[in-house]
Amino acid sequence: MGRTFDILSRVGDEPAFRQEIRDWLAATVPADWRQRWQAVRESELKAIVVDWLEERRKVGLATPHWPREWGGPGIPFAYQIIVYEEFARADAPELDMYTISLFHTPATLFEHGTEEQKDRYLGGITHGTDIWCQGFSEPGAGSDLAALRTAARREDDHYVINGQKIWSSAAMHADYCLLLARTDPNGKRKHDGISYFIMDMKTPGIDVRPIPQITGESEFAEIFLDDVKIPVGNLIGAEGNGWQIAQSTLSTERGLLIFGAVERLAHSFELDARDARDGWMRDVQFRREYAAFHAELQSLRLMIRKLLIELEANPDKASPTLPTYIKLIWGPFLQRYTEFLLRAEGIDALKWQPSIPGTGHSSRLRMNDFLKSYGWTIAGGSNEIMRNIISERILGLPRG
Amino acid sequence: MSDDIDLGVLAESFAEMLGAEWPREKAVAYARAPGPAAQTLWGEMAALGWTALTVPAEHGGLGLGTAAAAHLHSALGTAAAPVPMLGTTLAAELLVAAGSPAQQAEWLPRLADGSVRAAVAQPTDAVIAAENAVVSATIPDMVDAPSADLLCLRGTRGGCACWLILPREAAGVSVEATALTDTTRTLGTVTLDGVAITDAAILLPDNAAGLADRLLRAAAIAIAADAIGGGEAALAGTIDYMKTREQFGRVIGSFQALKHRVADHQAALVAARGLVEHAAGLAPDDPRALLDALSAKQHVTRTVAEIARDCIQLHGGVGFTAEFFPHIYLKRGKLNEALWGTRTLLLDRIADMLEAA
Ligand SMILES: Cc1cc2nc3c(=O)[nH]c(=O)nc-3n(C[C@H](O)[C@H](O)[C@H](O)COP(=O)(O)OP(=O)(O)OC[C@H]3O[C@@H](n4cnc5c(N)ncnc54)[C@H](O)[C@@H]3O)c2cc1C
Predict the structure, then answer these.
(1) Fewest CB within 10 A of the end CB: N or C in chain A?
(2) What CA–CA distances, in Å, run from A106 to A113, A124, B39?
(3) Min CA distance, A307 vs chain B (Å)?
(4) Quick check: CB of A137 below 6 Å from ligand 1?
(5) A299–B260: do the CB atoms touch at under 8 Å?
(6) Rg of chain A over CA atoms, in angstroms?
(7) Residues A254/A216, Cβ–Cβ less than 8 Å
(8) Which of residues 305 through 334 in chain A touch B, CB cutoff 8 A?
(9) What is the DSSP string of A332-383?
């Protein structure tokens, strides 16, 4: 140790920037972090994740894609891409718990938050202290999100919230919640009358119950809301305008987030052939199946790169259709590839092992990765909904 | 190579000409009764310089690279154009890469102006032992051979791999056509009956394996590009049909079970086109060039053949008729899958390359 790193000063010289990140990652990410994290108890999880974010913060990379005015490094898009690429290549821990904090919250507040809201809330994310969750889905409003029923009733200087949210990732660790609730039950369309709030998770009346997942982990939770008071100042945008704002929250999900995920898989894909050199790579059938995935992985990476290049050139002119195609292809691809690895590795892959936090779908525990792959085809708008969008909005086929 | 000309504009001009000269009705009619129209179409393409695309400028060509050729093949696939461009593209590649100056001077200008059409043996085609001055052999299943004026055959001489560059009109050469279900391409058995082989007809590469890979790459990209053009056309035509055909009082395109299928097909084609264009854009000496080209070939031809299959189904009864277009793309799609290396053959090669990486 002892060496200090100055990654941000290398901006302007791409190879030097890349090298500095690599050196920093090599010095900072312990080679055995997976084994260590695998042994961590659920109650200690947040602490180690916060530690990792703190390490990143020291070199200015807690929130690599944020502008400087809100505590990010303010680096050009091409350099943000390098950061995500190098994190993936180095197999650094992922920040699953911070997904909403890093992506959805800024996407919402940068565009729609008041100056006061931005000042008050964004710093907590860059400083690694605040975790956010997203309270959109309800038991009766998933794909049909606009059918949500959680009610927000205005009383003087605050709103009173009653209802229930479900599938909220990281809610049990969260300090704040991006909440959608209905302020007007008599709107003409169900999309009208929805409002968007910042909810402090320490407010009385909030009950969070973790939901066990198919992997055995509990990364998401139910949130019960019983007369929860939210100050009027925590309304984002105008009352009743929540649906439009929610659209922009969700649409920003598909750039760097998915890029990082696919790069991790690409890295893992190379390791898989190496690790199986004396195993399933000697089986002609498995070997061919493996080889066939190369084309699909390449085509996905190319689509994402194309999107990133477009976003860099001009976010307003980037293809509105490409993200939908990417979303539709990526999840099923991941499912088929992880399922292939299960078959190729046989019974060993089916033996239970504790999951490894911070690895997303690339824990390389085959069954866990396979099961987790469903997150990508269900969350954030299921693939069936993506198919509706493509067939109706892009191909011009009529609604059913 | 001067690939800085606008490939998008080039692609548009291919599409425009073929849309006018080879509209879908013509393609459907041709599938039932192949005939001299193909010859006319070839002449028009040659007049526009399409046959000259990848031939170097010093031999009368345009000196463009694989990416430009890919756009051409993609447009030919879209139109299901019945022209032997594959053989011509590959013959140019072969001669440019390894032909002697005399061979290049003799054949390249004529390939460029379209007066010579060529057929090039696939890696799986028969190899001719050309140890003697006079050779007899039979080479079955050579693509583009029935219309070819120039035959490029695989051979060995002195124990080394070589190519035989034979004019079709040479004494002792004959070609017998074999009917294909895809009438937009032709297949033939080439017979050499005591053909005199001069040194001028022998192409002896310094690096035979390297040349074979270079040809394989060019073929993979041309075929993948042809496939993607065909797949896009088949799907677009099917979506149009789904917007007009009514059942149960509404257009079938409003049924979600059908909509979801075409949404998947569309997404798959968008991804596949990106892969083909990327593979075509890599420099031939890029270490990943062959890997990505073979990946594209096996993946795209498979994907397109599957989509074409579903396009028949989505048409219902008319999809089973010769009168509607989807069968043209299905037949060409299945042939594309089989040409220049079956999927398993390519996958074995891809696996080798991935393992070595
Ligand atoms: C890992 C994970 C993390 C999540 N994190 C969050 C979070 O942090 N915050 C949050 O608010 N939510 C979160 N969600 C919830 C997620 O957004 C919803 O699960 C998703 O929108 C689907 O809704 P649903 O579960 O109610 O399924 P349903 O809407 O009940 O869907 C059931 C099935 O019916 C299909 N279907 C529904 N409608 C149609 C239609 N019109 N046409 C065709 N098929 C249809 C669906 O595709 C699906 O296959 C998360 C979910 C997962 C899996």
Answers:
(1) N
(2) 9, 12, 62
(3) 12
(4) yes
(5) no
(6) 22
(7) no
(8) 306, 322, 324-325, 328-329
(9) HHHHHHHHHHHHHHGGGGGS-----TT-TT-SS-HHHHHHHTHHHHHTTS-H
pLDDT in tens, A187-246: 899 999 999 999 999 999 999 999 999 998 999 999 999 999 999 999 999 999 999 999
Atom of ligand 1 nearest to the CA of A141: 26
A331 in ligand 1 pocket by Cβ < 6 Å?
Answer: no
How big, in percent rounded to 5, are the helix, strand and coil portions of chain A? 55, 15, 30
Q: What is the per-residue pLDDT for B2?
A: 46
Give the per-residue pLDDT at B1. Answer: 42
Output the DSSP codes for B32-55: HS--THHHHHHHHHHHTTGGGTTS
Identify the sign of the CA torsion B143, B147, B152, B153. positive
Q: Which of B239, B296, B355 sits opposite A395 (nearest CB)?
A: B239
Helix B66-79 vs helix B208-244: crossing angle, to nearest 10: 40
Q: Is B177 strand, coil or helix?
A: strand
A5-58, pLDDT tens digit by residue?
Answer: 999 999 999 999 999 999 999 999 999 999 999 999 888 999 999 999 999 999
Give the residue from A278, A298, A306, A394 with the most B CB atoms within 10 Å of its CB, the best one to mutate.
Answer: A298
Closest CA to A132 of A227, A2, A236: A236
Contacts of A365 (CB under 8 A, 6+ apart): A353, A355, A356
Q: From the CA of B256, how many Å to the nearest CA of chain A?
A: 6
Residues A244-285: pLDDT tens digits? 999 878 776 678 889 999 999 999 999 999 999 999 999 999
Q: Are A52 and A93 in contact (CB under 8 A)?
A: yes
Average pLDDT, chain B: 96
A392 C-beta closer than 6 A to ligand 1: no
* CA A100 to each of CA A132, A133, B62: distance values in angstroms, whole numbers, following the listed order: 6, 6, 53
CA A390 to chain centroid: 23
Residue A104 Cα to ligand 1 middle (Å): 17
Q: What is the number of other CB atoms lying within 10 angstroms of the CB of residue A214?
A: 11
ipTM of model: 0.91
* Packed helices A256-275 and A77-89: angle between N→C axes, nearest 10 degrees: 30
Per the structure block, which two tokens stand in for B275? 């892969």
Q: Which of A322, A391, A400 sits opposite B262 (nearest CB)?
A: A391
* Smallest CA separation from ligand 1 atom 51, residue: A379
Under the banding of pLDDT at 50, 70 and 90, the label for residue B4 is: low
Position A1 scores a pLDDT of 53
A44 is catalytic: no
Q: What is the dihedral of CA B77, B81, B82, B84, to 10 degrees?
A: -60
Cβ density class B230-268: b for 16+ within 10 Å, e for less: bbbbbbbbbbebbeeeeeeeebbbbbbebbbbbbbbbbb
Over 70: is that where the pLDDT of B216 sits? Answer: yes
Which residue type sits at B196?
A: A
Q: What is the mean pLDDT of chain A?
A: 94
pLDDT, average across residues A323-349 = 96
CB atoms within 10 A of CB B285: 8
